């Protein structure tokens, strides 16, 4: 109120020469469009954003400090809680790093299961993002449609892993248990189901004129900026930057599978949207190939009871649903890491937000934040 | 470009650099003062062109700090790890690389927040996660917090 | 006289309450079925008492006035919005005999009254002392004032065709066929423009920028809670009813049964269905349309919203008025 009165009195003093004050609003820490406890301090000129300052740390748990006291098996559950929508892939990153350091061979069945889980996670994450994207733009129905299809994935996970969100299923040496006997059949059913339902996604959102108007040409990110800000994943691929870790630094046998890296060159919100939708299709292709030649055998390699990594430094990248997750382990030869660093995709993707949204309208900021697909616990590790 | 050529190129740009090699990476270890010239060469040299700053972090090898830069080139498809040694615990400082990679701005703020390393020429060096009035730098090895950190040796 | 006024007052208030309950329930069910879920199911069979339970909850909630709010205006806004919605109900013919005030300037009166809504929204948004509310209120101002024009012009087109400003006269001109059937292109265009523009005036999706949940949390009524919030919500639904009733009366014949030509067998069959049923059916059909928009469309941006009005709808409705006048003069309509 005081501010409003100031504006009024300012105007009266200045006469025809109108003076306005800076208008700050706090988007978050509790706000419908930030999907978590992200806090953005925004400077406004009418509807137009002049400055954005992200204020982080509301849910920082100091994962890296915690891990210095934990054994490598205990780190796995911690990583599930970073990017909770890519829990399997986070687990996989640590598992792969440990296996690389110890030179452990992972049996083929475990690797196939890992790919299946990772790709189902990716599909589920993109479905949730798709629904939330619709909600951010004011269309509420996609949210429920996305969740309907994601729910079937979570149910499959629950049967095999016992949990729906924080799996802790992929562990150093392989996977914790063999898959549920029904799992493969359910995955096959699910592929059929999703192939029918995905065109509906296009009908309700992608083909909508308002949606296209709201996203095309909005939130432009040039390829140079995408690289400079360290963007990875669909955010960078929407600008035409080829950065799919599954192609570049293949792990767990992705190199033997036939799939395309999805690239769009427009760099706007619509391009990032299309990348994710097409990635769902590509993930379906990967799953189909894995399910057709599903190997038999063990699901656990030869691991020692107590995992001790040799002295040295180990870096492992994986492609989560949001981009490049890097695990950097510095070992002293003990059973806990001397230092562990998680290079999280969301952290880098967040840093680009200011660059994109300054000069656009509030509504565009919400749309852009949605296509960056930020998961806050992964930023506040 | 193979590791030997790369070593030569780096040595000519920064004579103070020493090298380590393991199965995956070529490590370049360099004193903090020479870091920026080296990193700039790595980024701008057309044969090296490390355009992607994959990871930026710090290790506290009490008493000195090592800044870690894992660089990657999307064009040449090679990668390198640069370690910059910062000696002195009381007032550690290093040149900021945020003029080369915009994404380094937030990453360096994170390192400042947890390790207390000052980045010269950083546009906006504030604490990122912790409150502004926080005492100490939690990821340092000698950080003591009797309430929140359990000591089980 | 006093007794008549009393009866009308009581029945209007009852209508308000019933409409509020029915429309909120309908919205929740329509939304639910579009979103492959069931909606409220617990309170009463098929959850029909859910809105009643919600009302009880809203009434019993604490009345919060934020610090620094302009108390008088903050309390006035929800009252104003309800009164305006009530006033606009007066000249609408529910049936051939059910009409509160058979004014000869009914169409004009409704257009005039309904444009007052913006004042209460601006008041509420400004008095809340909340930045989100203020942005929402400003958006609402720009939006309602703009779309008022298109609503007005599409009403003008229909007034030209029917030759009267009185709702009951307009209904009577549709004895041989509804205007949507005999009005040629101008009636069609006016109908579409009216539905689009009045959705915008109602602040409903895809034009719900003043509320814009994902951007402004709840826009102009962010700070309102309990019964004051309920009044805002109630008036939104009453306004939706009024808009649909106006559309049904002007374009779909109001309470007039489906007639083709004069005094034939088909018309007599249709006359067996009571006028009130015809009226309610048409109104609820249009309400369903507006709800359908809400649950399928994304939201426009503020500049796109204004572009749509000033660059497309307004020129179209201006030309449409000319076309309607031409048709009326030449007598081309049936």
Explain what you see.
- The complex is a heterotrimer of chains A (381), B (153) and C (334).
- Chain A is of the alpha+beta class.
- Chain A has a single domain (63-379), classed as Cytochrome-c3 Hydrogenase, chain B (Orthogonal Bundle).
- In chain A, 50% of the residues lie in helices and 12% in strands.
- Chain A has a three-stranded antiparallel beta sheet. A three-stranded antiparallel beta sheet of chain A has the order 6-7-8. Chain A has a two-stranded antiparallel ribbon with strand order 4-5.
- In chain A, β7 (323-331) and β8 (339-343) form a beta hairpin.
- In chain A, α4 packs antiparallel against α5 and α5 runs antiparallel to α15 (362-372).
- Chain A is globular.
- The mean pLDDT of chain A is 86.
- Chain B has 153 residues and is of the alpha/beta class.
- Chain B has a single domain (3-120), classed as Beta Polymerase, domain 2, CATH 3.30.460.80.
- Chain B has helices at residues 3-13, 35-44, 104-115; strands at residues 18-21, 26-31, 52-61, 64-72, 79-86, 93-95, 118-120.
- In chain B, β3 (52-61) and β4 (64-72) form a beta hairpin.
- The longest helix of chain B is centred in the last third of the chain and has 12 residues, at 104-115.
- Chain C folds into two domains: 1-60; 70-330, no CATH class.
- Chain C is built from 14 helices and no strands.
- The relative contact order of chain C is 0.14.
- Chains in contact: A-B, A-C.
- At the A-C interface, β1, α5, α6, α8 and α15 of A face α6, α10 and α14 of C.
Primary descriptors:
heterotrimer, A: 381 residues, alpha+beta, Cytochrome-c3 Hydrogenase, chain B, 3-stranded antiparallel sheet, 16 helices, 8 strands, 50% helix, C: 334 residues, mainly alpha, 2 domains
Describe the secondary-structure layout.
The complex is a heterotrimer of chains A (381), B (153) and C (334).
Chain A: H1 2-14, E1 23-27, E2 39-45, E3 48-55, H2 63-67, H3 72-80, H4 87-102, H5 108-136, H6 141-161, E4 170-171, E5 174-175, H7 183-206, H8 209-215, H9 223-228, H10 233-237, H11 245-248, H12 269-292, E6 312-320, E7 323-331, E8 339-343, H13 345-351, H14 353-357, H15 362-372, H16 376-379
Antiparallel strand pairs in A: 1-2, 2-3, 4-5, 6-7, 7-8
Chain B: H1 3-13, E1 18-21, E2 26-31, H2 35-44, E3 52-61, E4 64-72, E5 79-86, E6 93-95, H3 104-115, E7 118-120
Parallel strand pairs in B: 2-5, 6-7
Antiparallel strand pairs in B: 1-2, 3-4, 4-5
Chain C: H1 2-34, H2 50-59, H3 71-88, H4 106-114, H5 117-127, H6 131-162, H7 167-172, H8 179-182, H9 184-201, H10 213-216, H11 226-251, H12 265-271, H13 275-296, H14 302-330
Helix pairs in contact in C: 1-11, 1-13, 2-11, 3-4, 3-5, 3-11, 5-6, 6-9, 6-14, 9-11, 9-14, 11-13
């Amino acid at each position: 109120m005081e501010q409003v009165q100031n504006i009024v009195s300012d105007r009266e003093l200045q006469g025809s020469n109108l003076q306005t004050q800076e208008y700050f609003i706090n988007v978050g820490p509790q706000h419908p469009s930030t999907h978590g406890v992200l806090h953005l301090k925004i400077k406004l000129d009418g509807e137009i954003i002049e400055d954005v300052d992200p204020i982080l740390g509301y849910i920082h748990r100091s994962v890296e400090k915690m891990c210095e006291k934990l054994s490598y098996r205990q780190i796995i559950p911690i990583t599930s809680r970073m990017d909770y929508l890519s829990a399997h892939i986070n687990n996989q990153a640590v598992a792969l790093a440990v296996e690389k350091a110890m030179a452990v061979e992972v049996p083929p069945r475990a690797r196939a299961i890992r790919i299946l889980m990772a790709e189902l996670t990716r599909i589920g994450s993109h479905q949730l993002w798709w629904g939330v994207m619709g909600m951010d733009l004011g269309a509420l129905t996609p949210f429920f449609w996305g969740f309907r299809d994601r729910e079937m994935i979570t149910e499959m996970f629950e049967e095999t892993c016992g949990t729906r969100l924080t799996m802790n299923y992929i562990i150093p040496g392989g996977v914790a248990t063999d898959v549920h006997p029904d799992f493969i059949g359910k995955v096959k059913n699910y592929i059929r189901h999703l192939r029918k339902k995905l065109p509906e996604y296009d009908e309700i959102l992608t083909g909508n004129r308002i949606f296209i108007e709201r996203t095309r040409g909005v939130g432009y990110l040039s390829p140079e900026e995408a690289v400079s800000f360290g963007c990875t994943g669909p955010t960078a691929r929407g600008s035409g930057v080829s950065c799919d870790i599954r192609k570049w630094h293949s792990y767990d046998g992705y190199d033997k599978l036939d799939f395309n890296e999805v690239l769009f060159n427009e760099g706007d919100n619509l391009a990032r949207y299309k990348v994710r939708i097409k990635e769902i299709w590509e993930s379906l292709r990967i799953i189909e190939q894995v399910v057709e030649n599903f190997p038999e055998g063990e699901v656990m390699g030869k691991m020692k009871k107590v995992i001790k990594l040799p002295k040295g430094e180990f870096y492992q990248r994986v492609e989560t649903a949001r981009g490049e997750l890097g695990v950097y382990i510095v070992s002293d030869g003990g059973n806990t890491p001397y230092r562990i660093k998680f290079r999280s995709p969301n952290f880098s993707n967040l840093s680009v937000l200011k660059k994109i949204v300054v000069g656009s309208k509030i509504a565009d900021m919400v749309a852009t934040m949605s296509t960056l697909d930020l998961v806050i616990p992964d930023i506040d590790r | 470009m193979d590791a030997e050529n790369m070593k030569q190129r780096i040595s000519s740009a920064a004579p103070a650099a020493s090298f380590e090699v393991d199965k995956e990476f070529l490590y370049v270890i360099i004193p903090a003062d020479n870091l920026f010239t080296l990193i700039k060469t790595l980024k701008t040299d057309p044969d090296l062109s490390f355009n992607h700053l994959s990871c930026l972090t710090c290790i506290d090898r009490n008493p000195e700090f090592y800044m870690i830069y894992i660089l990657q080139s999307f064009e040449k498809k090679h990668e390198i790890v640069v370690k910059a040694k910062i000696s002195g615990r009381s007032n550690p400082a290093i040149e900021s690389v945020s003029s080369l990679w915009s994404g380094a701005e937030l990453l360096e703020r994170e390192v400042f927040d947890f390790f207390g390393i000052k980045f010269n020429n950083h546009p906006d060096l504030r604490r990122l996660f912790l409150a502004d009035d926080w005492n100490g730098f939690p990821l340092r090895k000698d950080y003591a917090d009797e309430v929140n950190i359990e000591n089980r040796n | 006289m006093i007794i008549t006024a009393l009866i009308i007052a009581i029945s209007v208030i009852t209508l308000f309450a019933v409409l509020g309950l029915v429309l909120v329930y309908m919205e929740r069910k329509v939304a639910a079925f579009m979103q492959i879920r069931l909606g409220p199911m617990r309170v009463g069979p098929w959850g029909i008492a859910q809105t009643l339970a919600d009302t009880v909850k809203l009434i019993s909630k604490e009345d919060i006035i934020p610090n620094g709010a302009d108390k008088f205006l903050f309390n006035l806004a929800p009252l104003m919005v309800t009164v305006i919605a009530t006033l606009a109900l007066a000249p609408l013919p529910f049936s051939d005999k059910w009409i509160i005030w058979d004014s000869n300037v009914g169409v004009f009166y409704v257009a005039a009254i309904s444009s007052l809504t913006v004042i209460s929204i601006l008041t509420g948004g400004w008095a809340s002392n909340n930045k989100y509310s203020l942005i929402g209120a400003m958006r609402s101002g720009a939006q309602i004032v703009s779309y008022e024009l298109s609503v007005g012009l599409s009403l003008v087109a229909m007034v030209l065709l029917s030759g009267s400003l009185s709702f009951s006269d307009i209904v009577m001109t549709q004895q041989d066929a509804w205007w949507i059937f005999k009005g040629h292109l101008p009636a069609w265009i006016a109908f579409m423009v009216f539905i689009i523009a009045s959705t915008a005036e109602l602040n409903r999706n895809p034009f719900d920028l003043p509320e814009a949940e994902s951007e402004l949390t709840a826009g102009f009524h962010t700070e309102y809670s309990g019964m004051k919030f309920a009044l805002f919500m109630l008036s939104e639904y009453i306004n939706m009813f009024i808009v649909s009733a106006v559309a049904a009366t002007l374009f779909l014949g109001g309470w007039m049964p489906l007639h083709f030509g004069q005094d034939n067998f088909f018309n007599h069959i249709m006359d067996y269905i009571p006028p009130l049923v015809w009226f309610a059916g048409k109104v609820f059909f249009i309400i369903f349309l507006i709800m359908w928009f809400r649950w399928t469309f994304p939201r426009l941006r503020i500049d796109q919203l204004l572009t749509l009005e000033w660059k497309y709808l307004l020129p179209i409705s201006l030309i449409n008025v000319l076309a309607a006048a031409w048709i009326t003069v030449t007598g081309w309509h049936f």
